[in-house]
């Protein structure tokens, strides 16, 4: 049986505070590695079978990687990429707001406790995301232009403007508005 330490050792293989480009780019080899090592964790995690991992900072971090990051790697462009987002936000709320587990982790690790809020389509989640990421502003790597704080703000702006992420519309079977279509046609990036 996979332990949460296995997830952390894989994801943070270069150290707990080293940023890896593979995390946020399309990389078929990286996705295949996640699938072969951890693909069997996604369903039980979605069903709550791994919620006990959330009892410690490291376990909560690993569970959020399985619920929030791995689906985006394993199901790119499909509705299933977002199917565990609500569960991830519930785990993140307990870890960050109730237990302050984020303070026990390295800054780069903390960002993965905050990402479920950044991935939310409610403005309240976006506001929380920005507030949490802004708490990392004194860390130069986090505050750099194009860094995690910038991305938190960019996501919030999209939700403030559209009330949802237009780039998910096709995967989720949602029709796009004319304004969303124009934004997507213009690049629609973060």
TrEMBL record:
Classification via Pfam families: DUF924
InterPro entries referenced in this protein's UniProt entry, alphabetically: DUF924, TPR-like_helical_dom_sf
Highest rank taxon of the organism: Bacteria
Protein name: DUF924 domain-containing protein
């Amino acid at each position: 049986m996979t332990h949460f330490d296995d997830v952390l050792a894989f994801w943070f293989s270069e150290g707990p505070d080293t940023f890896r480009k593979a995390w946020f780019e399309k990389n078929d080899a990286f996705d295949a590695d996640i699938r072969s090592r951890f693909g069997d964790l996604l369903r039980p995690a979605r069903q709550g079978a791994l919620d006990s991992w959330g009892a410690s900072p490291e376990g909560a971090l690993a569970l959020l990687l399985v619920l929030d990051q791995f689906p985006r790697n394993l199901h790119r462009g499909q509705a299933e990429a977002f199917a565990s987002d609500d569960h991830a936000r519930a785990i993140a709320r307990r870890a960050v707001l109730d237990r302050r587990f984020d303070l026990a982790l390295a800054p780069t690790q903390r960002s993965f406790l905050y990402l479920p809020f950044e991935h939310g389509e409610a403005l309240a989640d976006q506001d929380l995301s920005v507030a949490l990421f802004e708490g990392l502003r004194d860390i130069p790597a986090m505050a750099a232009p194009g860094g995690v704080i910038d991305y938190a703000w960019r996501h919030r702006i999209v939700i403030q403007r559209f009330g949802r992420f237009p780039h998910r519309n096709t995967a989720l079977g949602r029709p796009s508005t004319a304004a969303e279509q124009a934004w997507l046609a213009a690049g629609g990036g973060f």
